[in-house]
Amino acid sequence: MSSQQPSPAHIPPTDAPDSPATPAPRKASRTLAAALIGGILIGGAGVGVAWAVSGDGSSANDAAGDARDACRALSGFEPSDYTAKGAKGEIALNRFGAAIVLSASAAAGDAQYKPLSEAVLLARNAHAVTYDFNDSRVKKNLDKARQICDDLD
């Protein structure tokens, strides 16, 4: 006689998923905004460093020079180019970023440049919320920063 062992019972697979049926909420807009702001700051810092390193002698390595360079970047910034593809868009993005970081550097070096830095930062913050340079808060603060720059000359 042969001994037979009973075969193990077959356990059918379940159709229930291992994870919840609803996906986790997407945070794409927050991630995009953070990436955009990070890109602006990094790009602006790069432009600022490039200007400082290649200096043409018109800007000293001080708060006044940073303020002049921030104003120069802001005067070359065209908001309508900000969303353009290619070089136009990159130039606008980097000039706006340069104005942000250079005005902050100027304010850190000398409190008299704090209003310039605040106006540029308020414009950036309003733009980060609306993504629209035609928004009244963005325009108001860009105009204020440009007026401060005009008064520095």
Radius of gyration: 27 Å
The low-pLDDT segments are: none
Q: Describe the biggest sheet?
A: none
Structural class comes to mainly alpha
Order of helices and strands: HHHHH
Count of separate DSSP helical elements: 5
Overall pLDDT score: 81
The helical percent reads: 55-70%
Straight-line N-to-C gap:
109 Å
The gross shape turns out to be elongated
Number of strands: 0
Strand fraction equals under 5%
Task: Give the topology.
Blueprint: H1 28-54, H2 63-75, H3 87-109, H4 114-130, H5 136-152
Helix pairs in contact: 1-3, 2-3, 2-5, 3-4, 4-5
Structure description:
The protein is mainly α and 153 residues long. Helix content is 63%, strand content 0%. It has 5 helices and no strands. Helix 2 (63-75) crosses helix 5, helix 3 (87-109) runs antiparallel to helix 4 and helix 4 (114-130) runs antiparallel to helix 5.
